[in-house]
Fold this sequence. Notes:
3-stranded antiparallel sheet; 18 helices; 12 strands; 44% helix
Amino acid sequence: MTTTRFAPSPTGYIHVGNLRTALMNFLIAKKAGGTFILRIDDTDPERSKQEYVDAIQQDLEWLGLTWDKIERQSERLDRYNAAAEKLREIGRFYECFETPIELDLKRKKQLNMGKPPVYDRAALNLSDDEKAALRAERGDGHWRFKLDQQRINWTDGVLGDLSIDAASVSDPVLIRGDGQFLYTLASVMDDIEMGVTHVVRGSDHVTNTATQIQMIEALGGTVPTFAHHSLLTGPQGESLSKRLGTLALRDLRESGVEPMALLSLMARLGSSQPMELRSSIEEIAEGFDVDQFGSAPTKFDVQDLYPLTGRLLGETDLAAVADDVAAAGVPADQAAAFWDVIRANITTRKDIAGWWELFENGADPVIDDEDKDFVAEAMALLPEGPFDGESWGAWTKAVKEATGRKGRGLFMPLRKALTGQSHGPDMSAVLPLLKVIKARG
Ligand code: GLU
């Protein structure tokens, strides 16, 4: 049984970088008919906020990334206690008392001597009396997992065969001096107890994975399959870490990006498979393959989402946008005709209301100086209306005969005079919908 999880910390809004992780884990579970868990990593009571838990759920729901189960780490502290107990029993857990300043000094010394800044395990040599004295002086210590100093190997779903020397990594701190469990312990215990079979996350977690593999083994769990996707960069390859705050999913939603445009792009960005615009998450899941992703940083340009959104809306039936069309004030009996006329000419749903407003109230004409006389002459030839699908053709034919203009020189000034724009739907479809023609003067 395939089980995956998306494990955000509720310390902020989730962004496109998080989405990549969420989507990949979701798709693996979906494709296999397995279970997708939303796990809220809220072991840090100071930084975790309920408002972000709610926001994360809203963002995932907007995208249709629904979870089969939700778990919160803050409700599982007894399980993390049990894990800590077990690690103590088997001699893989030890208490340390160095202050952050002392640790920093040790690191600096090591770096000065050209050595890697790995924790020197000094606390392992403390006698019980020494520990008691330190505890009396400094309070409870923090607890580190004692790594087995050998190579840790795994075959990564994206990065291939990996091997990390445990001796080059500090024994990870799992419990802070104030008793707070840290993410690593919680995550390992959850992955074991929730039966997680596949973990996809960013390549910034590779070293964590190495230590977590040893911890899972020490706790008697089954090591899941790991895959580490590359991190996103901006369009020029620049780091996105500082800009991710501006790429929050809720901002993209506000700006009119369509969920399926975003998901279609994200499911293929950085993969050897070409982007295909899909209209359902099931279709995306069918073609999804984490092995096809490369290890190189993945370029992401938020601007790519708008043409994709426009394309998607062009292929969208009225039923899926009926609420927006009604909200724009379009009467039900005109909705289908209206949508057919505009759908290939909008970028986001936000453009719907603008077109209806234009049809209802007319547009301020745009008339270039050299076209003034031509437009005036054409307007004189425009019948009163109402117009039908033939009216535009008949009118422009008459204008052509009267003025001798043809092609773009004939059509463009008329489009701009009637709609105020140089782009838009087929004018023979627009004319019957136009209730006011301000260019008539
Ligand atoms: N809360 C962790 C993070 O957001 C989860 C990492 C993981 O997938 O284990 O980085």
